Amino acid sequence: MTILESARAVADADADGAVDWDAVADAAKGATPPGDLDLAPGEAEAYAADVREARERIRAVSGLDFDVPETVELQTRHHWIDANVATFRRAFEPLNERASVLPGVARAFNTVTTAGALAFVSRNVLGQYDPLLLADGAPGEDGSAHALYFVHPNIVAVADSLDVDVPRFRRWIAFHEVTHAAEFGAAPWLPDYLESRLEDGVDALGDGELRTEAFEELNVAMTAVEGYAELLMDEAFDGEYDDLRRKLDARRRQGGGPLSRVVKRLLGFQLKREQYERGKEFFTYVAGERGLEGASKVWDDPEYLPTDDELDVPPRWLARVSA
Fold it and tell me: Which pLDDT tens digit goes with each residue over 75-98?
């Protein structure tokens, strides 16, 4: 599909709902080359081995009891778009149910901007631990509790751009995504917590309201998720990583040319970087005071999540959870 055909997919979208998700998928894939999934002999098993070894190393370092998905998915950019359209469709269903409050022009705008966002992210994402929020069925039912994706063409392209060996870079990404599996395994309440905030925020949007507290709580929780993952990475990765950390931090900050940086800010990539940095500063302080075990207390109960203020003043969190 060409970019022209991608635009036509949006123009020909059906008339029901606030977003035409089939058109989103077609348009996003039309604007994005899928990338190559030709693997060298043994490369698929190498991904799986990295995940298994990351699980064992992170278990040993953190003391957390968790597992990883039985199947590791190696994806093209198009595969990643399809998987995330399914998630978005579930998350934003309340908007489609209230589509009558949105004019047709808003619906077309929703469809084309969502397609553009997914196309852009699909060219940048490296790996994704997906707890399958809002999925049908209880956790563990039919293997539906979680999934682990690696976007192989992006990993190869970014490793080349950073002048890093692909196997070493692939292993770094595997460790990072497995840290997220550790967090969700340690905090069985976390999926429901995130789902409820997301649902509250989207329900309010469907009623024409902006419920900022729901999105603020969601952002604070995700800042904790990203920050703790960064802390675990520093403790668990089995090798020298200063150069990888430095190069990846520079990539997060630079984000390409001026237009690319503007697009990333509009799509929340700036927020993502701030989540990494702000969360890591919080957990670095807490671990320095109480060790990794003390930092892991954040996953014992939703009440132990830091507040927005506590993220910037970690001693307040320490005083509260120690009281």
Answer: 999 999 999 888 888 777 765 665
282 vs 275: CA distance, rounded Å = 10
Q: What is the pTM of this model?
A: 0.84
Residues ≥6 apart with Cβ < 8 Å to 1: 9, 26, 29, 30
Residue with tokens 């070894």: 53
- Three-state DSSP class for residue 287: helix
Are 123 and 46 in contact, with CB atoms under 8 Å apart?
A: no
Other C-beta atoms within 10 Å of 16: how many?
9
Q: Which two tokens stand for residue 300?
A: 């014992």
Give the residue among 44, 33, 41 at the shortest CA–CA distance from 81: 33
Q: How far apart are CA 150 and CA 153, in angstroms?
A: 9
C-alpha closest to that of 272 among 258, 254, 252: 252
**Contact (CB, 8 A) for 162 and 247:** yes
**What is the spatial distance between Cα 313 and Cα 296, in angstroms, rounded to a whole number?**
18
- Give residue for tokens 């022209």: 4
Q: Please, what sign has the CA dihedral across residues 323, 290, 231, 178?
A: negative
Q: Are 89 and 21 in contact (CB under 8 A)?
A: yes
Bridge partners of 74, per DSSP, are: 150
What's the one-letter identity of residue 269?
Answer: F
pLDDT in tens, 212-243: 787 788 888 989 999 999 999 989 998 788 88
Q: How far is CA 86 from CA 24, 59, 130, 195, 281, in A?
A: 11, 31, 12, 15, 34
d(CA 268, CA 147): 23
Long-range contacts of 269-274 (CB under 8 A, 24+ apart): 269/124, 271/219, 272/226, 274/223
Domain boundaries, the chain: 3-318
